[in-house]
Amino acid sequence: MADTINFTRGVPATESFPLADIVEAAKQAIQKHGTVIMQYGKSTGFLPLREWLADWYKVSVDQTLISNGSLQLIEFFGFHFITPGDVVFTEAPSYDRTITLLKRHQAKVVGIPLEADGPNIEALEHALAKHTPKFFYIIPDFQNPSGATCSLEKRQKIAALAKQHNFWLIEDAPYRPLRYRGKEHPTLFELCPQRTFHMLSFSKLIGPGPRIGILYGNAEMLKKIMKIAEDTYVTPSLLSQGIIYEYCRSGKLPAQIEKLKALYAPRLQACLDALDKYLPDAQATRPEGGFFLSVTLPEGTTTAKVLERAKAHNLNLAEGEAFFPEGGGERFLRLPYCALTPEEIDDGIQRLAVTVKEVQEQ
Amino acid sequence: MADTINFTRGVPATESFPLADIVEAAKQAIQKHGTVIMQYGKSTGFLPLREWLADWYKVSVDQTLISNGSLQLIEFFGFHFITPGDVVFTEAPSYDRTITLLKRHQAKVVGIPLEADGPNIEALEHALAKHTPKFFYIIPDFQNPSGATCSLEKRQKIAALAKQHNFWLIEDAPYRPLRYRGKEHPTLFELCPQRTFHMLSFSKLIGPGPRIGILYGNAEMLKKIMKIAEDTYVTPSLLSQGIIYEYCRSGKLPAQIEKLKALYAPRLQACLDALDKYLPDAQATRPEGGFFLSVTLPEGTTTAKVLERAKAHNLNLAEGEAFFPEGGGERFLRLPYCALTPEEIDDGIQRLAVTVKEVQEQ
To answer: What is the mean pLDDT of chain B?
Structure first.
């Protein structure tokens, strides 16, 4: 029987981890900074890495905070912004783990329908006529789970609305450095710095295991988040941060990002080609970077049925509904392609097409 | 002017970190487990370390969970147990960061007065007549902040009360492995496994920077905590855990614990000797291990006044009130001694005695 193919979790390719460089960085870090990175420290993270990351984004150190992975930043925003019943906006679909955390804080999560070029602005304006949210959580670049990228025009409009209605933007940008083709748009943080927190899952560019997330934002607001972080875990993992600092300091990150692009671009292309070949009628996003694309299955064909049937073909898929904060997503299918080879992708999408046909003929 | 002496944070001595061994462990870990520890994984932590830690406590792997530092476990208990207004018990005084987190979850935190041999049992029974708490958070060995150790008799009584009244015990035992003299009592987890979670700040024995906390408990309950952990941060820092695993696997932990005892025992003794010498009338705990002892200042002499006045002697002290969940602690002074040399301790307590006298004469 054919090997199992997993279109499930959005994880980087194991073969992309620069292990020899990490061994060297670990040695350097422990020898040079051992007494600091083996001790307690500030909740803002290992200072040299914080300085390096501030410089990377051309912001000041007090606008930069390092966390134990980026998801936990959502938890901090929950404690900072949300009292039960407060309204927050996300795109619909959005990152399922963020939605789970926001609901754990008993936020009312309103989903703004997402299109291939970003949130539907009319729907956003309609929602703003009803509620002023505490914040709008948005993934403008190569969105998880859809693969959509927000157009410049929509970014400008969203920034203007945030200023006009006085709500915060939480811009989650883990995939932004992974553009395989096309032109980059400015971030919301660039367009509207006074109303935007910009976050990313930084260590994912090297390997997620060290769990290093970053938050950039207004220094006064960050002080409050730092206190929440301190109350939560005292200090993030300084040992991990020291190692990643030495890796970054040695100048290896740009080449690593180029390596990732060279590895992932053909995987995205394999996805797009296989969709054209095996599922030519599929409504799929056509991203220019990132980890994901998504397919909306034909009318009457649910993801749940396809997911169930796909098991017979040794194809693992993820359900779509968890990505939608207020229901929907019955025909939504996320396809994370980074951890699969082009051959596996071709094979997997062929199996998907067969499965969809079987479900339609049931 | 004399150097500043800090009796403030309870941190281990920097000179105790086994840096050369950690360099070697890091190399081994990244070379052997790199593709696992640089990747996402389960919220329960790096499996080989989890297995090692299960074996260390002679429990099963599914009774063992590794977290990003032990404080965050309190956060998970908050999400698991507490709805706003729920009653929980702590000792009074107790670890201030735990009290802060419990209050962030809007628990009503009831403090059970602590004596040199553990919680006042009459007060506990009195509190139980009024409320059945969701749990009693207790630090039976070398308590933070008091230095008190719970007697065997009181442990047995607390275990019996937990069974009788159906509440959980959260036994926090970071200092238990650091007994410098005297005899160990059984843990609450040994006396009452069906009602006890046992947690500790494990990496503190090596260095806190890797942020490795452990939770031992009932496997079914732990499954729920694991889900909360996954929702919060997906995966704890596997890079740190891989390194600490290789350190532990190499058999170096027992010698490290002996090294800590040999380093800290004279520091505790220096504290006790200096108190006898300079503050013979002080009401101080006389612990047999751990990081802390505590002093109750004479009637009419507040910690706030002493703390303020001490600055003139380059002596930094911590306020007492944050350790008391329901008020009190105006004359409570915690003295963490591990990160100070015996000479600094003697000097510091001499300065403290001078300061107390000055405040009394004000």
So the answer is: 97
Q: Are B144 and B95 in contact (CB under 8 A)?
A: yes
Q: Mind telling me how many Å the CA of B72 is from chain A's nearest CA?
A: 5
Which residues does chain B have within 8 Å of residue A48's beta carbon, measured at their own beta carbons? none
Which of A249, A278, A310 is at the close of a domain? A249
**Count of domains for chain B:** 2
Find chain A residues with C-beta within 8 A of B40's C-beta. 9, 11, 208-209
CB-CB contact of B232 with A233 (8 Å) = no
Which domain-ending residue is among A249, A279, A303?
A: A249
Structural domain for B73, as ranges: 19-249
> pLDDT over 70 for what percent of chain A?
100
> What's the pLDDT score for residue B212?
97
Residue A1: what pLDDT?
57
Distance CA B149, CA B238 (A): 34
For residues A273 and A203, state if they share a domain.
no
User: Which residues of A fall within a CB distance of 8 Å from B19?
Assistant: 30-31, 34-35, 38
ipTM field: 0.97
* Domain shared by B235 and B269, yes or no: no
Distances (CA, A) of A250 to A23, A246, A253, B210: 13, 6, 8, 22
CATH of the domain at B116: 3.40.640.10
**pLDDT tens across A255-296, in order?**
999 999 999 999 999 999 999 999 998 899 999 999 999 999
Q: Which of A52, A17, A16, A25 is nearest to A247 (CA)?
A: A25
CATH of residue A320: 3.90.1150.10
CB pairs under 8 A between A and B: 168
Residues A100 and A234 both lie in one domain: yes
For the record, the structure tokens of B51 come out as 């297995």
A37 touches chain B (CB under 8 A): yes
Q: Does B38 touch chain A (CB under 8 A)?
A: yes
Please name the member of A71, A234, A238 whose beta carbon is closest to the beta carbon of B234: A71
Task: For A34, name the nearest residue in chain B, comparing CA atoms only.
Answer: B19
* CB-nearest partner of A23 from B30, B79, B206: B30
Residue B69's nearest CA partner among B224, B230, B240, B228 is B240
Chain B touched by A19 (CB under 8 Å): yes
Establish if B100 touches chain A: CB-CB under 8 angstroms.
yes
| Dihedral (CA of B298, B301, B305, B309) sign | negative
